[in-house]
Amino acid sequence: MAAPHRSHRALRLLARPLFRVRDLFAVAAAVVVLTLCAGPVLAFPPAPPVAARVQAFVAENAQSVTVPADAAAPTVARDSFSSTPGYASLAAGGTNYDWAKLVLLYADLPLTDENVTVFVRWMRQENGTDDWWNRNNPLNNGWGSGGAGGTGTYDNLDLAAQNAAEAFYEIPGYAGFVAAFAASSPTAVTESAIWASPWATGHYANGAHWSQAVVPTVKSPDGTW
């Protein structure tokens, strides 16, 4: 029975180196791991700030333009614009000049200085300046006022302006001064056309009953518009 005992012992002796080799590999792996963990950590350098990168790009790609000393600046045409008073704003103003402009506006005639000047002179010859709104009929217009010879009355000055503008185009005898207003003619030309028209039976004595003096600005009382 001694032989079997020796054979078992021999097998155990042969198996021992195998266990030692396996242990050796485990130790070696642990050493590698510890070495990697303990070693220096690799770090990439930080990127430059955005502003620095932009400056570097501009410096590398800079461009320049050379302008001749005799170069002339181009002429730029700019559109002009203007504003026209509206019906409500003229009524709110309430003066004799506002009423003159209102009639021209209703009649689709230019609101030029020449036209307005003639108009307020005309109003002065008809009703005076201090009471130019008399009977809400500044031009003593018979059209739509219910009074022959221009003695009628309108409910307000706005209606008076509308009827005056309508009369300009409805009565053929007024075509001469309407054309003068439309052309923004010099004041003397337009005034002569008014005198020659049948607006006033006396024709303003062909201008003898007409003043070219400056017309003061006078506002009408509340309730007239």
From TrEMBL:
Superkingdom: Bacteria
Protein's organism: Conyzicola lurida
Upper classification of the organism: Bacteria, Bacillati, Actinomycetota, Actinomycetes, Micrococcales
Protein name, as recorded: Uncharacterized protein
